[in-house]
Amino acid sequence: MAAKLMSPDKLKKFEELIQQELKESIAYIEEVSKGQSLGAKESSGDLSSYAFHQADQGSDTHLMEQSVMLMEHEREKISLLKESLQKIYNGTYGICEMCGKNISESRLEIIPYAHYCVSCTEKMEDKKRKQRK
Fold first, then answer.
1. Buried b vs exposed e over 63-101: b needs ≥16 C-beta within 10 Å?
2. How many CB atoms lie within 10 A of CB 57?
3. What are phi and psi of 95, to 5 degrees?
């Protein structure tokens, strides 16, 4: 079954949703980057002149590593959002890259940068689980 193209009104709705998520993701990365550039003491609010304890330093390092991982995830999301915008402009938005069927609108409302329908996503996840065993 060939995919049915989305109406211009629905495409506009999803374009606005994607633009909003893109704006929020960029703002998040800028905020985290600003916090990292301040350094561990200033961003935690600890401006005392006491020496750093090893446990405190370990906690700060762990928090910074988490921030880096979250920023990387957000960068990947930004890339997917930009790809989705391009699909809207190309007229291919909402079509599963694997099976060519429509991705449900309810899925796109939750994950507007989805490239695969639920069925294909489940198949890929099952395959990954089997490969890990």
1. ebeeeeeebeebeebbebbeebbebbeeeebbbbeeeeb
2. 11
3. -110, 125
29 plus 61 within the same structural domain: yes
* Structural domain harbouring 68: 8-39+54-93
pTM: 0.76
CA distance 67 to 64: 5
> pLDDT truncated to tens, each residue of the chain (133 aa)?
567 889 999 999 999 999 999 999 999 989 888 877 665 445 555 555 455 556 666 666 777 778 788 889 999 999 999 999 999 999 999 999 999 999 999 999 999 999 999 999 999 999 999 898 7
With respect to residue 3, please indicate whether it lies within any of the assigned structural domains: no
